[in-house]
Amino acid sequence: MRSIARLFMLVLGIAFAVPAGAVVLVLGALAEPAARELLLSGGLAFLDALFTEASQGGAPELLAGSVAYGVWALTMTIVVAPPAFTALIGEVVGTRSFIWYGGACGLTTALLPWLMRSRGTLAGLAGAEGRLTALLFLSGAVAGLVYWLIAGRSAGPAPPPSPEGERGRG
Predict the structure, then answer these.
(1) Can you tell me the distance from the alpha carbon of 97 to that of 164, in angstroms, rounded to the nearest whole number?
(2) Strand residues in the chain grouped as ranges (E)
(3) Is the pLDDT of residue 77 over 90?
């Protein structure tokens, strides 16, 4: 019965952690000039490609579908995977530490873009990249802490009954 309850808590915790991390990421992206510039340039490039495809007699809906799939995959990778990964490891190991859930989720989220790079090196970390990495860490940490508040504090095996409780029964 405890396994079913833990599974329910895991799903519930992730269901609240993901939107919390996404909200922090969106608000931070709107507040951070480098992120706004990145979003604007990506949006303009998409519109340019869409209009070019349409003017050449192509199928712009295929391009729009490809871009929508790419945005969905990136969102799942950055917003959903780190809290789910951290929660699963925390449940298996049985840790109840808010430092684990907040720190590991934040670190995983912040490292994902670096791990997805072709070179895989941190050489030449520019100021804007550093701020974007900090933003990703913050959104992941918020997601991990929300998970901890809902499900992480009771992770792992059930604690043994306290000796005081057994003495009071007799």
Answers:
(1) 25
(2) none
(3) no
Which phi and psi angles does 57 have, rounded to 5°? 80, 15
28 neighbors 139 (Cβ within 8 angstroms): yes
Pair of tokens at residue 131: 């701020």
pTM of the entire predicted model = 0.73
Distances in Å between the alpha carbon of 47 and those of 11, 38, 41, 53?
37, 14, 10, 10
Q: Which region holds residue 161: left if phi is over 0, alpha if psi is between -120 and 50, else beta?
A: beta
Answer whether 164's CB lies under 8 Å from 30's CB. no
160: left (phi over 0), alpha (psi -120 to 50) or beta: beta
Least confident range from 88-97, 123-132, 151-160: namely: 123-132
Q: Examine the pLDDT at 122 and tell me if it is beyond 50.
A: no
